[in-house]
Each structure stands twice: as structure tokens, then as C-alpha cells.
Design goal:
The chain is mainly alpha-helical. The chain folds into 2 domains: about 10-130 and about 190-345, no CATH class; about 370-450, no CATH class. The protein has 19 helices and 4 strands. Strands 1-4 form a two-stranded antiparallel ribbon. A two-stranded antiparallel sheet has the order 2-3. Strand 2 and strand 3 (about 165) form a beta hairpin. The longest helix has about 35 residues, at about 395-430. It is globular, with a radius of gyration of 25 Å. The termini are far apart.
Length: about 450
Amino acid sequence: HLFKVRERGSTVGQELQAGVVTWVTMSYIVVVNPMILSAPLEDGSSPISFHAACTATCLTAAIASGFVGLTANLPFGLAAGMGLNSYVRYGLIGKEGLSADAALACCFVQAMLFAFLAASGAVDYMQALLPNALKSSITVAIGVFQAFVGFQLMGLIVKNETTMVGLGDIEQPALWLSMTSTLLVAALFVRGVKGATIMGICFTALASHLLGLRDARQDPLVDPAGVGGAGAFDLDFGAAVERPQAFGSAVLCMLFIVVFDTAGVQHGIGQQAGLINSEGVLPGARFAYLASALGTGVGSVMGTSPVIIHNESAAGVGDGGRTGLCALTTAVLFLCSPALVPLIELIPPQATAPCLVLVGALMMTPIRDIDFTDLRIALPAFLTICVTPLSYSISAGIFSGIASFFILRATLRLAEVAERVGDDVGRCLFGSRLGRGSPRATREATALPELC
């Protein structure tokens, strides 16, 4: 009764299985996030301790995912955001020159502000301003982004110096294995086989090792024991006084990214799961925001970057996850993840790529809700869908769509007001001779005495 499993058309086994799928597709963060945050500075020292970041990554993911599962009853997996960790390490610490302690303090302040906005309902109000068609475009954009990431992981899409991106080496066995796995999992989906995603991941991982296709890491996972760096409980709020502009801009930038990223991802995945109600609202959304804020607050104290809802949660939803039991399963696995790092490293990139591509395909469905004959919504939706994968940023795509929507609406409103004022002034000055025969003049002819 706590998770309403049967009410949402699921089973306990299906929820547990979906939670495992979500964890598997997110598990890379356990290794990658600490490696990014502990990347050496110019003097060779690590700004943030690898061990502290690894522990913080696992615990914050467990806390945030568990919180959203128990309070919001939503199948979301939360963990440190990939774009945000790079921003903290290379933007704040590298470019701005903030200390790691000050950068983590920025994360903490951002978490408190986000919690206030979520608790006060400000984020819900911002969501209510958006039309459902624009929200649907966010779902589609996340799906395209998911597929783009999957194509990169399998090697189908690679960097190209001339055209920025290009077709990869189609003679690579790893690419063919990933494509084969994609078709295999798709066939299992069509046949209604439960656990198709996890079967595909296991098949690809096993085949990769048997065929010797696992990509070796460029840099081995070193043990940075004894290396200095920020760790748990190291926060420096003095930077807010010493460098208020850098500190404030960092907080606002992260807040903007987290608000729009979290809002867009949770609506998109909620729509995929069929949890959006008739009013276009996701029940429990406020607790999902609070889970992100809670995870970020705890994570900043422990030594990691802001926590968001991962779009890899769509893989678990695609495998049948519909309730908070799925998120709770993911949380338990993250709690055990520090001891499972060697096992996680055995999962090659091409093993998770097929499920990302298939989930992306499944998230195309809401595009039918967008009226592309109405440019007032077609342009913002188009920008959202295109900018997200091309900029490699969900928040950038969401912002471009939202900004263009409100700017276009304001421009049309101003034009309408200007036309009305011009017509009224013209009639007052010249009477019915101005605009005679126009629909507006005919419509409002009877109102002329009152206007003048």
C-alpha cells in the first residue's frame, strides 16, 4: 500500500528489477564523478579527495533516491550531475580560481535556495506557466539526447574536426555488438519480455569480455590515498565576502541549471511512465525537487557536486518501474556501491548504450501532442528538441525553448496592444475614414462614441 504497486499496474518483482536497471545505467557515476572532481591541479594536487568524492557520490545518491522513493513514490534515480561536476571542477575551481572548499560552499548555498523555492511552491508555479506542448517537447528532447549519448557510447557517433560530429568506424566489432544488442533488446521489448533491458546489458557485457572488446581506460583508477584535497565538512563561506561576484554568479548559475534540468527531466520521465495527471502535473513533484536539494546539501558537506534527477532513470521506467520501490532499490544498490566499484568497472560503455538508444526512441511518443502548424509553440518546441542534443545540455535546451516561448508571446502581445492603440487613436482623430472596411473597424464601430 505504501508504494501503490498494484494500483500503478506493476509488481514488486518488476519494481525491484527496474531499480537494478536504473542503478546499472547510472553506476558509471560512482567512478566517473570522483575522477572528475579529483582531477589534479597544475601543481599536481587534487582539489577534492577521491575517497571523499567517491563516498559522497554513493551516499548522496542513496539518500536522494531513497527520499524521492519514500516521499514522492516516484521511480527516479538521483546522483551528482555530470555537467555540474565539470562546472565545479573546471569552471569554479579551474577557471574562477575558487578553492574547492569555496566551490562546495557555493553548492551548499544553492541547495538551500533550491529547497526554499521548492518548499514555497515557486518551482511549481514556474512549471504551471508552461503549456503542455512545450513540456512534451522537453520529453522528446531528453529522448533525443539519450539516444545521442547512446550512439556516442557505442561508437556510432564520434568527434569530427571538420563537422564537429561524424560517423564512427563501422568496422569496429564493438559497434556491431552494440547494434546487435539494440535490435535484440528491441525484439524482447516487442515480445513483452520482462527484464529485456537488464538482459541486453548482461549479454553485451559478457560478449564484450569473451571477445576481448572491453575498452581499456586511458588512465587507471588510481588510489589517491594521502593526496590532499577537500573532503567531508570542508566548506569555506568566506569566499562570499572576499569574492562576492564569483560566489554569487556560481550559486545562481547552478541554481538555474538544477531548477530547469530537474523540472524538465522529471516531467519527461513522469510522462514516459504515465504518471502525469489530467492537469499536466506530476504528483509528488515537489518532493522530487526537495530530494535534489537534500542530496546537494549533504553532498556539498561530504565533498561532491550538486545532485539532480538522472535521465538514465528513463531506462528503469522503460523496464517497468512505476513507483518509489524502484527508486528505493536503486538507493540500496548505491549504498552498497563503494564495495562494488571493481564490478561496476567491468560494465563496458557499449553495454549500456543500447538501452539508452531504445529509451530515446520510446520517449518520442509525446511529439504527437505538439501542434507544429502553430509557430507560437512550434518554434519553442523545435528549439528545445534541437538545442538539447546539439549543445549537449538539457538545461540549455529547456532554457532556449522557455525563453523563446515567453519572448514570442510578449512580442505578439505588444504588437496586439500597439495595433489596438493605433486603431483607437486613429478613429478618435479621423473618425470612421481611417480603417474603414477593416474587420476591426467594423467590429468596433459601435464603440466609437464611448472611446472618444
